[in-house]
From TrEMBL:
One GO molecular-function entry: zinc ion binding
Cofactor note: Binds 1 zinc ion per subunit.
Origin species: Granulicella mallensis
Pfam families xrefs: KduI
Function per UniProt: Catalyzes the isomerization of 5-dehydro-4-deoxy-D-glucuronate to 3-deoxy-D-glycero-2,5-hexodiulosonate.
Name this polypeptide is given: 4-deoxy-L-threo-5-hexosulose-uronate ketol-isomerase
Amino acid sequence: MKLLQMADPVRYSRMTTPELRETFLLEGMFRPGGLDLAYVDLDRTVIGSAVPTTSALHLETQPELRAEFFCERRELGVLNVGGSGSVTVDGETFELGKLDCLYIGRGSKVISFSSEDAEKPAAFYLLSYPAHAEFPTKMVRFQDLEGLKLGAVETCNKRTIYKAIYKEGLRSCQLVMGFTLLDEGSNWNTMPPHTHMRRSEVYLYFDVDPAHRVLHLMGPPQETRHLFIGDREVAVSPGWSVHAGVGTKSYGFCWGMGGENQAYDDMDAVAIAELK
Ligand SMILES: O=C(O)C(=O)C[C@H](O)C(=O)CO
Ligand SMILES: [Zn+2]
């Protein structure tokens, strides 16, 4: 498993562009026919992707976890950002269309991923944190999620937030997970921005045109930097960092968090005029 060791705000301020990318960005995941995992030392996050084609892919335990099976002490969120597919958990199969989400509880032993059509494979995004209790493995369909509308056309940030794994939705120990879709012509996400020292956050950008990029903002509000991010790439945001972005064309993104609390609204808002 790849290891990401987070930098603190002191080291961050001296980092070059390649160092920032190496530390906070995951590229090269979502390989057709592959299952990739990365371990982040912050909040013990595991970030992964599974793109099954002609055969099923199995989520195995990893030496770094010192666990008999992947979910022995962990919970796992799965969001499908590709074609139709299925996830089988201890013999029970869940069919996931695009943007359907599955929560897999601690103690689940045998987990595998399949695609309905190898030519249009499912693309399962995986986000996992340690769990202290077992919650039921359950899925929610995109069409059954209630969207929260934010922003406006005049500020180019009209968007809908879909919460899937959270206190009033699919229950979990610490994982909070959902996604945001932008309205046509609105390309700013999470603007005005915020930080939340109590939780780290992970963004997966998807449906980014291969010729385009999302300019992702990170860092303390008074010392921001940017990462240009392509399709199906992942940015990790420590609690001290803002996480916002603007696309050169439309896109979607999955956000997920772990840490001290599960209160989605627990954010320290930053006024746009205070950003540096
Ligand atoms: O567009 C947004 O605003 C978001 O999606 C914000 C994220 O959900 C977030 O940062 C939650 O802490
Ligand atoms: Zn946030």
